[in-house]
UniProtKB/TrEMBL annotation, chain A:
Residues covered by the FUZ/MON1/HPS1 second Longin domain: 263-361
Highest taxon above the source species: Eukaryota
Family, per entry: Belongs to the MON1/SAND family.
Residues in FUZ/MON1/HPS1 first Longin domain copies: 103-224
Protein name (record): Vacuolar fusion protein MON1 homolog
Ranges annotated as biased composition (Low complexity): 27-42
Domain FUZ/MON1/HPS1 third Longin: 391-491
Role description: Plays an important role in membrane trafficking through the secretory apparatus.
Organism of derivation: Clavelina lepadiformis (Light-bulb sea squirt)
From TrEMBL, chain B:
Domain CCZ1/INTU/HPS4 third Longin: 338-434
Pfam family, one: Intu_longin_1
Superkingdom of origin: Eukaryota
PANTHER family to which the protein is assigned, alphabetical: VACUOLAR FUSION PROTEIN CCZ1 HOMOLOG-RELATED
Name by which UniProt lists this protein: Vacuolar fusion protein CCZ1 homolog
Family: Belongs to the CCZ1 family.
InterPro entries named in the record: Ccz1, CCZ1/INTU/HSP4_longin_1, CCZ1/INTU/HSP4_longin_3
Residue intervals of the CCZ1/INTU/HSP4 first Longin domain: 7-128
Transmembrane segments: none
Automatic annotation (TrEMBL), chain C:
Record carries keyword Kinase: no
Membrane topology category: Lipid-anchor
Family recorded in the similarity comment: Belongs to the small GTPase superfamily. Rab family.
Keyword terms: GTP-binding, Lipoprotein, Nucleotide-binding, Prenylation
Pfam family, one: Ras
Subcellular compartments: Membrane
Superkingdom field: Eukaryota
Name of the protein: Uncharacterized protein
Main location class: membrane
Amino acid sequence: MEDDATILSTGHVTSSESVDVPSDFENLASSNSQNSASNPANPDIQEEVFVSADDQYVSDSALSLPGPSSDDDISFRQRKLTMLMTEEDESELSSSWKEKKSHIFVLTEAGKPVYSRHGCEDKLSSLMGVMVAIVSCVHDRNDTIRSIVAGNRKFVFLIKLPLVLVAVSSALETIHQIEIHLHYVYNTIISVVSLSQLNRIYSTQKNYDLRRLLTGTDKFLDHLCNSMDQDPQYLLRAVKCLPLAGHMRDFVGQSLQQSKTDDLAFAVLVSSGQVVSICRLKEHNLDTTDLQVLLNLVNASATSFHAGESWLPICLAQFNPSGFLHAHISFLDEKLQTCLIFLSADRDAFFTLCECKKKVVAKLNKHKCLEAIHLAYSKADYTVSKVGIPELWHFLYKTNNISQFTCPEFSVPYHNEKQRQRLFGLYQEMHGKIHNPAAPLKLHYSVSDEETLLAWVASGFELYATFSPLVTKNQAISAVDRLLRWIKHREDELFMMRTLTF
Amino acid sequence: MEPIKLSSMVVYNSTFGPKEGEEEKKILYYYPENESLYKKINNIGLCEALVQFTMTLSPGVPCEYMHTQKHDYIFYEAEEHYWMIMVLSKPVTVTSDGKKATKEDQISTSACRVVLKEVYQRFHLLHGLFSYIVHFSGVSALKDKLLEFFKEFLSSLHLSETSVLHVFRGLMYCNLDNFTLLKFQSCANTIQSKFDTIKHCIITLNGHMVTSSLLEDDSQVIVSLCTEKLSLGKLSASRKPKIRPNKPMYQLHHGKFLSSIFQSGSDRVFITLKSGMIEQMHMLIYQAFGTTSVFFLDHLPTALIDICKELDACVGPLLSSLTSEIQFCPRINAENYESNFRHIFFNQQSLSLESTYDLKHSRNCTSSVPTDVMHVICDINECFSDHACQEKEVIVKVQNESWVAAKKANKKMLFVVINSKNANLIAVNEDVRRMSTHFDSMHFSD
Amino acid sequence: MNGQNQARRTRISSSLSSTEFDVSFKVMVIGDSGVGKTCLLVRYKDGTFLDGNFISTVGFDFKNKMVEVDGKRVKLQIWDTAGQERFRSMTHNFFRNASALLLVYDICNAQSFVNVANWIADVKRYASPNVTLVMIGNKSDCSSQRMVKYKDGERLAKEYNIVFLETSAKTGLNVDLAFEAVAQELYNNSLTAADLVGSHKESFDLKNYVDSEKERSNCCG
């Protein structure tokens, strides 16, 4: 990191500064696609696949069409589309509904509504009918729709048969970023029903109403959608750790290790949505998206878990899209801040894990870890002033190899909601530019009347920083230098540098 | 790798065949022409559906693009209910394991939409409004004109050669010093006052704009038309005019009048006046001493040769003396700096454009812009052009060793592209600062 | 499998000895989504009513409640289950371990009453044959929206020969009774013949007890 820091100021750019972030996104896309392409649980569904631009496999048996469509089929659907368009009753869609900044719809390939972020899905069935008709009309041309742009409004399609996900956004996000949002939504749905169950249902019942299976899941999806509009973790594809002294984090990790039992895959301790420590099986990594899906679920239902212990099946798409893990979830304090999660492959392990929890809690208490955690989250985040660089207003820093990020809390001038949202929009915009698939950048420096922004992607990290608009480039660069040193110095406190194994 | 390809070009008006079974009537132009009627109708149906779909969620904001895995659809509502759709097929590459993959974003679709708009403006210049033609001559007349227009236009369309400069739709002005420029302007005024029939005039020198009394948009289209048809841009490079079938209409004492530059044989154009009115005029193109002048007459006199002779006698000597004493103001060009510096300067107000890049983008040419740099410039331009945009300075480093620096002040933009392994933010900033001092009207501070 | 569970249960009982109790039972609350299972439980455990938005239970929540029966400390381990279809197979899996099942329907939701038959079929199929089953019509405070008559509930209970009562998690009507009667029944069932010898204790009849103790809510049809 020190070396990288000097690159900016001395100008010697080495080839080692290659950026591996875009491949992160490819991984996201391709690993998902592999899931949908090769589904071990359902070997009798033969899918003919073709490759899209980002290696996304799309089933050619799309949209309930057997084999290549005949002209009659096509003209039937085309006519249906025209009919749907003329039937569209616009009065159903209120103008306040239309003005929402970001819509997310999930529907089945048969056009049945599954989820809508705003408004009741039932009222939107004709709109969803049009969406699916457009998808199938493009499919008839042996092609796959990706996005539509109208002014500042973007319509992004993610086709994950039997589901079709559509986002409509007028925010500053790029199409690519919106696609990633849709992947998160998709993974959250999979976490509830599992890919194999989904495929099994739709291989026999094309018209199945998935909402029957998803009852109660809307709150996960609503929570996810709201978070994606304001939480950098989804933008950066990284999780935030609770700042905690290194030795204390080690104690927590060792305590988690106590829970080792058969079939226990992961033990995770989180506090106020931030990761404290993770312990895992040697041969399995807890993928960042899986962890994010899990944490969203816990955060979204904190109120319904209460103070007891809960037992919940969850399918983590990256870990195994066709099977369920079972989550033992318990809160360790009255304020429902600190949460212990065990993930086990054994559906009968609940009572065993109740015992494990006791052991872990005992060990945590022995080292006074819970007090330390409590102290850490009651102090809340650090402020940017702690870094001691007056020109620096705010920053996001992501370490690439462990997919974790840190940022100070919002302070002046980003102290109110409006300014916070504006800043988040700026981060989205910079991130979108840096990770533009057509022209990925290494560095983006821009000056406006309100602030100066720097985005920088180096081999080990990504940095997004905002400065006063009056900062000179020399000042900005030396500030970044100091900031990187500051972070390096506190690495153990800000990040979970090691995950222990059972 | 196959280059990006035009897969279809469509002009339709939904109101012409609202009933089922009448869909064919909507089609005003369809390329490829030999496509089955069935497919034509289907494709237009899809476009109509997309337009309506986006309207339901964002009323008043028309559909602009649809991106699919294999194609880019570009939408432009040229006039109310008249839609022009350009469909581009993305280049296909074969990956090492034998799979076919489409290569994303070889060309910025926003640049292509600019091309599509320009197509319409050209048509409009030559034939007038779609609705006007339909009103006065009927739908079939519009279809005939579109067919004829696109036959010629598509044969000369090379999308992969779309230059980065295209997105600005600017005018390359001649870098004359103010005094010479004034003389040219007074020359133009003299002509307009002497000849009643001449309502407007444009003078270009070596393919660069000197003066025009038309609105910027029309000037831009006419100059780019002339540049293309008369290969004016190349004049400066190889002094030798390469005029293809355009035989001079009249070779006169000082210069020559060119016959029609359009295959249609007509030199009538539809000029938009400052009042917003559209007026039909006749174009006369006159070349002398490296200048090309375009005169716009409100009617053609019966004896065309007489007016041409008069013009030659009047304008010829003026231009002769002007061109002999031309003073160019110092231009920043590649010679002033190392060859790894390139720049684009654009004034949104006057559409004045200056650049060390060529208007024609060529894949093999060393001076060509790398795809990612082109994307970055397009994006920054889009951002700078947006009223809501607060940014006034951007410095970017792309994946290869290029840096792009852009500054905006008032309505002027400067882009500098630097190819240097050893550059850093400070050094780039220093270079840009030095360069921006050449554009003295811009006050860029650090 | 059953043997394993048995072993596990005893192990747990022994490890819980720190909090003193004499005997413990597993009780499950089942029924369609939205009938108020969690609310019943919260009312019983904390004496409060969860008002406001409907928070559907995800998966299974597990809580302990101590009750005193005949001077003995009885620990009820209560499972709050999610009513959604997707948790059905997991719910069945837990039936086996339950000593008592509280089957809840919503008197304002006719479908939830219709589904009681399905739930009972599941109970017959998956639960232990001597499980204690109580049918509960919840939300008895919402008389204006009532869709299921008290008599209908009673008739169905009679048909299946199970205990029936109506409750209100909002007002607390009959809530404690439901759980405590179950505790009493389970405790009595657990007593062996040897325990009963010399205790002069009358045998406990859950049905009679509930019928005599339960309060009828006003204006129920």
